[in-house]
């Protein structure tokens, strides 16, 4: 039986060359509607799909290819495929599809008939079926890939690796198409963002299903959330969730980085311990708390301009007071870390990774210096280590058992981040004598511990793993600093 190709395209660009190439290589061509008409116009033999389905179309053309027999011809494999061939029934070796142009619906109302009619159903269904059966079928989605498919078939390139790559491409193109549709249909059900990171950038928000996190949060007061608000609020929640659960914890965050983190017996005490590290940067920032916001903390925040405040609950009086601040976004949500993979776009692709939700317990730490940390230093190191993983690299956190005293963020050199943390702490009048330090990655030289010692740091926590670890350990021993290795790095770029 001759090999067979099923073709269904909206964009007819390159269709004639593609169809001619396949036909000249011995493929029987199957198509319907406008695709079949265009191929016939070029004088190329084409078999209507109704010879398989028995139906030209239904519902005024809405249904042409949604038929069990057609999809059996795409999906048949193994003994089923052999049986169909032995019976003289068609099986497809190529499925070439170009979807309806839903991008033309982006400026249409979400509930408009025009937008609905631009949602392709049959095309993605056929393409996904072909991609599933990639061991036998080439799934070619988008007219832009047709020349590559012709080249592969004509030059012995139709290998299992090629078909699997085309299958992966199909799901990638289809998922992007589905996201366009989802974003359009969600309009009116998801918050409207005024713009992206900057006013000249358009932005939307998409909540994944099942709805969790900010998708289910209550926002009883304040202006609409912005792109930056959501990004910062997510980072603040993750940090707040990492603080010890047995105490009140507060995170003050600005532009994706914590200005301060504090713990205490009350939410107000935790705030004070966070605020002492940096009293300037939190202006216009975000506060996330793992406990109920009460009147005492609300009163303390009266003079501090915040964009967003997040907490699992608010007392009635506290909520009443906060609602008087019209520009403050109030979010009722228990801070937690997302468990789904993180996705970041790059030029031409996406980076996908697991969340960094690990927090190494004290039992996993290894003391590498002559002096061991005291119990109070261990408590302080634990807090600093939880916070430093949420600071952009290179990251340094200096603190005590109450929280942070100084934070060094994102400098090209680790010792520069250390210098920044020290200067910030000194600017706020924080005494670093007896403090502890957390570094998200190892110290490559002893200059870091030496500078920390001069500032008054008495204990360090870091991953270890440098070829100069012993040099760093010797520096700590000479200064009487206790140091522990966790064995785990926490870069955040």
Structural class given helices, strands, pairing? alpha/beta
Principal-axes geometry comes out as elongated
How many domains, in number, for the residues? 3
Distance between the termini: 56 Å
Portion of residues in beta strands equals 15-25%
Tell me about the biggest sheet? Answer: 6 strands, mixed
Per the CATH scheme, the topology name of the largest domain is Rossmann fold
Under the CATH scheme, which class of the largest domain?
A: Alpha Beta
Q: What would your notes on this structure say?
A:
There is one protein chain. Helices cover 36% and strands 19% of the residues. By secondary structure, the protein is an alpha/beta fold. It folds into 3 domains: 4-185, Rossmann fold (3-Layer(aba) Sandwich); 213-332, Cytidine Deaminase, domain 2 (3-Layer(aba) Sandwich), CATH 3.40.140.20; 360-485, Cytidine Deaminase, domain 2 (3-Layer(aba) Sandwich), CATH 3.40.140.20. It has a 6-stranded mixed sheet. A 6-stranded mixed sheet has the order 14-19-18-17-15-16, sandwiched between helices. It is elongated. It starts with a strand and ends in an 8-residue tail after the last strand.
Features:
3 domains, Cytidine Deaminase, domain 2, 6-stranded mixed β-sheet, 17 helices, 493 residues, Rossmann fold, alpha/beta
């Amino acid at each position: 039986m001759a090999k067979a190709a099923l073709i269904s395209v909206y964009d007819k660009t390159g269709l004639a060359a593609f169809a001619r190439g396949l036909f000249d290589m011995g493929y029987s061509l199957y198509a319907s509607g406008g695709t079949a008409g265009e191929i016939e116009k070029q004088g190329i033999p084409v078999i209507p799909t109704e010879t398989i389905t028995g139906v030209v179309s239904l519902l005024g053309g809405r249904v042409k290819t949604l038929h069990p027999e057609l999809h059996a011809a795409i999906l048949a494999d193994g003994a089923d495929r052999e049986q169909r061939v032995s019976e003289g029934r068609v099986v497809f070796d190529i499925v070439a599809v170009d979807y309806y142009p839903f991008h033309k619906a982006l400026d249409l109302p979400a509930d408009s008939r025009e937008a609905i009619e631009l949602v392709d159903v049959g095309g993605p269904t056929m393409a996904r079926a072909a991609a599933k059966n990639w061991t036998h079928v080439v799934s070619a989605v988008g007219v832009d890939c047709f020349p590559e498919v012709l080249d592969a078939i004509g030059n012995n390139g139709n290998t299992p690796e090629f078909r699997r790559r085309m299958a992966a491409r199909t799901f990638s193109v289809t998922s992007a198409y589905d996201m366009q549709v989802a974003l359009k249909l969600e309009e009116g059900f998801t918050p409207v963002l005024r713009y992206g990171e900057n006013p000249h950038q358009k932005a939307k928000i998409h909540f994944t299903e099942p709805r969790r996190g900010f998708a289910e949060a209550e926002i009883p007061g304040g202006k609409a959330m912005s792109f930056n608000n959501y990004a910062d609020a997510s980072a603040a929640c993750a940090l707040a969730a990492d603080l010890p659960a047995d105490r009140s914890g507060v995170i003050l965050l600005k532009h994706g980085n914590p200005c301060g983190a504090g713990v205490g017996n009350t939410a107000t005490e935790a705030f004070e311990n966070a605020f002492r590290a940096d009293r300037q940067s939190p202006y216009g920032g975000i506060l996330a708390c793992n406990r109920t916001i009460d009147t005492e903390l609300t009163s303390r925040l009266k003079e501090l301009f915040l964009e967003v405040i997040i907490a699992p609950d608010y007392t009635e009086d506290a909520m009443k007071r906060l609602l008087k601040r019209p520009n403050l976004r109030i979010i009722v949500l228990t801070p937690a870390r997302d468990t789904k993979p993180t996705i970041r776009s790059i030029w031409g692709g996406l980076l996908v990774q697991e969340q960094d939700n690990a927090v190494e317990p004290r039992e996993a730490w290894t003391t590498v210096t002559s002096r061991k940390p005291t119990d109070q230093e261990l408590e302080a190191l634990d807090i600093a280590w939880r916070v430093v993983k949420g600071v952009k690299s290179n990251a340094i956190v200096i603190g005590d058992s109450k929280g942070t005293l100084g934070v060094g963020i994102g400098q090209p050199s680790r010792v520069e981040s250390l210098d920044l943390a020290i200067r910030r702490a000194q600017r706020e009048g924080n005494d670093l004598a007896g403090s502890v330090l957390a570094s998200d990655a190892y110290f490559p030289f002893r200059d870091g511990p030496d500078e920390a010692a001069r500032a008054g740091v008495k204990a360090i926590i870091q991953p270890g793993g440098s070829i100069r670890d012993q040099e760093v350990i010797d520096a700590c021993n000479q200064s009487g600093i206790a140091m522990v290795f966790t064995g785990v790095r926490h870069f955040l770029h």
